[in-house]
Design brief:
The structure holds two protein chains of two kinds. Chain A is an alpha/beta fold. Helix content of chain A is 35%, strand content 24%. In chain A, strand 7, helix 5 and strand 8 form a beta-alpha-beta unit. In chain A, 42% of the residues are buried. The longest helix of chain B is centred in the N-terminal third of the chain and has 26 residues. Chain B starts with 9 loop residues before the first helix and ends with a helix. In chain B, 52% of the residues are buried. The chains are: A alpha/beta, B mainly alpha. Chains A and B meet through loops of A and helix 7, helix 8 and helix 11 of B.
């Protein structure tokens, strides 16, 4: 299988604390991976290192066959950062304007948003069933609506790789269901590789086809079924907790 | 006297033309700065410009020629201090600001001779703008406005979310550098219009007023520019008729607009 992301021997530290130690893995076309681990285990740091937002002090990363340092196909990646709560509620931008920012990765100087781009924005808003939000200010939306808008911004270029940092957090159960069914459709129909961070391992079993468990290094990477049978994970969580995690979505 | 008769005076024409260009510049850049919580950079750079103006007067060189490169160096130093010393932007602005003021005071003190000139830069005197200063304002304002329009979407994206902007391939470091350099040029151009003491208000007030009425990012930029230009024109006319310092009058008009916009938001748009 073709690797979408290939990570080998990554080490990263904040000050003197090692946050990532010898992290290596491959994400392949069609993979839908849930990334889990306790608070401070390095999940968000790993995502930021992969995207070039943080620089590791050793190791190699390649995305879609290109070393990260030479990677410039940003329109093939959709990224939805964490912390919609940090959004300035008085920011004066409409939903349509925010989603169109996702298209900048396709643009060369001077960057101009055309009618074709506006149609692409309208199409993705329609696909996510949020056309009625188009002219509303982003700060006036609920947390769940904002997450959908940021998903629309990530999807507007029809990316081959989608990276989502805690996407289900601000969503009520039915909206979360709807949100993940959109991701499932993208993964199954269009082969979009997806990696998302979550604290809810049961959510991974329900929606994703692989789980990566991080504890500064990759402790487990494989299918959810393998995860449920893994003795290492039994030691990690205890047999009864592992059983609860593995069967909560049955 | 017909109010329009005062337009026949050359100094009023120069004041209005320079004022409009500088107002456009301050209001457009101001929105990006306010939303990025960099409102105080105008204050910091005006203080470092004070040092530049004092150095120009001390050396007998046209002060604006010295103040522009000094303000640009100050702006880049603010960025460097923020990144290298790992301190927040407001602390970096405080360091550069105090260095500029200290340098200006020392130069003024040892020269004994240009305190009156220096005061005209501190409080501004748009009605005394020369042809050279007007042409400089027009040229540099047009240059800055063209650069901003070419990089409008990059600036918008970084202002909304710097991290996401980087993942769309935008070189955030270069654009941030460009923003502070353009701000430095804008601050120096505004010195003669409102004076070093009031530049920050010229940058912040129209943007905050427009934010009270906002219905989208582009329209907020446009509203901010219109408010700023109207405030300059009304400020020049009223200050001439009432014999009040023009820079202060422009700021008062901007404050009135802000109160009206705030009232509109609270009462009418509720």
């Amino acid at each position: 299988m073709k690797s979408v992301i290939s990570v080998s021997g990554i080490r990263f530290r904040y000050s003197t604390v090692d946050v990532l130690k010898d992290v290596s893995f491959d994400l392949e076309v069609g993979d839908y991976v849930g990334l889990a681990g306790y608070n401070g285990s390095g999940k968000t740091t790993l995502i930021k290192v992969i995207l070039g937002l943080l620089k590791p002090y050793t190791g190699n990363i390649s995305i879609m066959g290109l070393p990260l340092e030479k990677f410039n196909l940003w329109d093939k990646i959709g990224y939805m950062p964490q912390n919609t709560s940090l959004l300035n509620p008085g920011f004066p931008a409409r939903v349509e304007e925010i989603v169109s920012l996702g298209l900048l990765s396709q643009k060369r100087f001077p960057k101009i948003i055309t009618d074709k781009d506006r149609r692409a924005v309208a199409e993705v808003l329609h696909r996510l069933n949020i056309e009625e939000l188009k002219n509303l200010l982003i700060g006036n939306l609920s947390g769940g609506q904002q997450q959908k808008v940021f998903l629309a911004r990530a999807l507007v270029t029809k990316p081959e790789l989608l990276i989502l940092d805690e996407p289900g957090n601000a969503l009520d159960p039915s909206t979360r269901e709807q949100f993940f069914s959109i991701l499932e459709e993208l993964n199954k129909k269009h082969g979009t590789a997806i990696i998302f961070i979550t604290h809810d391992i049961g959510q991974i079993g329900k929606y994703a086809n692989k789980i990566m468990y991080l504890e500064h290094t990759v402790v487990f990477y494989g299918s959810f079924e393998e995860f449920c049978k893994s003795e290492e994970m039994s030691r990690q969580f205890g047999v009864s907790t592992q059983h609860i995690i593995c069967h909560q979505h049955d | 006297m017909n109010i329009l008769n005062i337009l026949q005076y050359g100094f009023i024409q120069r004041a209005i033309i320079s004022g409009i260009f500088v107002a456009l510049l301050c209001s457009v850049l101001g929105l990006f700065l306010v939303l990025r919580r960099l409102s105080l950079i105008g204050d910091g750079l005006s203080h470092i410009s004070f040092g530049g103006v004092a150095l120009g007067l001390f050396l007998g060189i046209f002060p604006i020629y010295i103040a522009i490169p000094i303000a640009i160096l100050g702006a880049l130093a603010i960025l460097a201090i923020t990144e290298q010393m790992k301190v927040y932007g407001d602390a970096a602005i405080g360091i550069i600001s105090s260095a500029g003021i200290a340098g200006g005071i020392i130069l003024a003190s040892i020269s004994h001779g240009f305190n009156i000139d220096l005061l005209s830069y501190l409080f501004g005197n748009i009605l005394a703008i020369t042809n050279l200063e007007m042409y400089l304002s027009i040229g540099l304002s047009l240059l800055v406005i063209i650069i901003i329009s070419f990089f409008y979407y990059d600036l918008f994206s970084i202002t909304f979310n710097e991290e996401h902007a980087r993942v769309t391939g935008i070189n955030v470091k270069i654009i941030n550098m460009m923003l502070v350099v353009l701000t430095a040029i804008t601050v120096v151009l505004s010195i003669r219009v409102v004076g070093i003491m009031l530049i920050s208000a010229f940058i912040v007030l129209p943007s905050v007023t427009a934010l009270q009425l906002s219905r989208g990012f582009r329209i907020t930029v446009i509203i901010s520019a219109i408010i700023s230009v109207i405030a300059v024109i009304i400020g020049i006319f009223t200050s001439f008729l009432l014999n009040i310092p023009t820079g202060a009058m422009i700021v008062v008009i901007n404050l009135i607009f802000l109160l009206l916009a705030f009232g509109y938001r609270k009462v009418v748009a509720k």
